[in-house]
Design goal:
Residues 1-109 form the Protein kinase domain. It comes from Geodia barretti (Barrett's horny sponge). One of its GO terms (molecular function) is ATP binding. The protein has 212 residues and is mainly α. The chain has a domain at 8-120 and 172-197. Helix content is 53%, strand content 3%. It has helices at residues 24-40, 63-66, 68-77, 83-91, 102-117, 128-131, 139-185, 200-205; strands at 50-52, 58-60. It has a two-stranded antiparallel sheet. Strand 1 (50-52) and strand 2 form a beta hairpin. The protein is elongated.
């Protein structure tokens, strides 16, 4: 048990100290951990806070480094510099004073939502008439090219559908994080008070780890 409310896996290092003081910065840190969980769909169990290198010197890890494997999945789904990536990196800052405010978090979430909503998914269908403009092509060559273009069009359509599904997932992830922030602003039970560990089945299926 810890003296601060919540499960230790969500807590910043200062919350686990003997003379810890609970405030909003702890919840901000926990929001960053939950954001990793939401996007990666993997329970972000951190690495040890320190390790011994080859020279037998103790080397400390930052909180972001402790969750580096999961952050790779986050940046893979979005990109380095994406508003959600920036938010997570700031929330998990070891320096308390450099963690963001709720207003800054809301700003990043609004930017992330805008990027998702502004995304365009053009199939770029090809006109078969364009394939017939070349008079030097034989009918057989034309049929081959038409078949190839039709196959390319189907492939692009499948990619478009996959992108739309990814867009829906990201929209749901942003909405989930916004709900967590709204709960913090409303002074409801801290998100870090949840101690239930999700099962592997929940993580794979994408079931929400957040209380309703």
């Amino acid at each position: 048990m810890t003296k601060a409310p919540g499960a230790s896996i969500y807590m910043p290092p200062e919350a686990l100290e003997d003379e810890s003081r609970y405030d909003i910065t702890i919840d901000i840190f926990s929001l960053g951990v939950l954001a990793i969980f939401t996007v990666s769909q993997m329970f972000p169990k951190p690495l040890a806070a320190a390790y011994m290198d080859r020279s037998r010197k103790i080397v400390g890890r930052t909180e972001l480094e402790r969750r580096g494997n999961y952050m790779q999945e986050v940046t893979r789904q979005f990109r380095e510099g994406h508003p959600l990536v920036q938010m997570i990196q700031r929330c998990l800052n070891n320096i308390i004073e450099e963690r963001p405010t709720i207003q800054q978090v809301m700003g990043w979430l609004e930017e992330a939502r805008a990027e998702v909503e502004d995304g365009e998914y053009d199939v770029n269908k090809l006109s078969l008439a364009q394939l017939l403009q070349s008079r030097n092509l034989s009918i057989q060559q034309q049929r081959i090219q038409i078949s190839q273009k039709d196959g390319e069009t189907r492939r692009l359509h499948e990619q478009n559908e996959a992108l739309k599904q990814q867009n829906d997932v990201k929209t749901a992830q942003v909405a989930s994080l916004e709900e967590q922030v709204q709960a913090l602003r409303a002074g409801k039970t801290p998100i870090t008070s949840q101690k239930t560990t999700p099962t592997p089945k929940q993580a794979v299926s994408g079931a929400s780890p957040f209380p309703s």
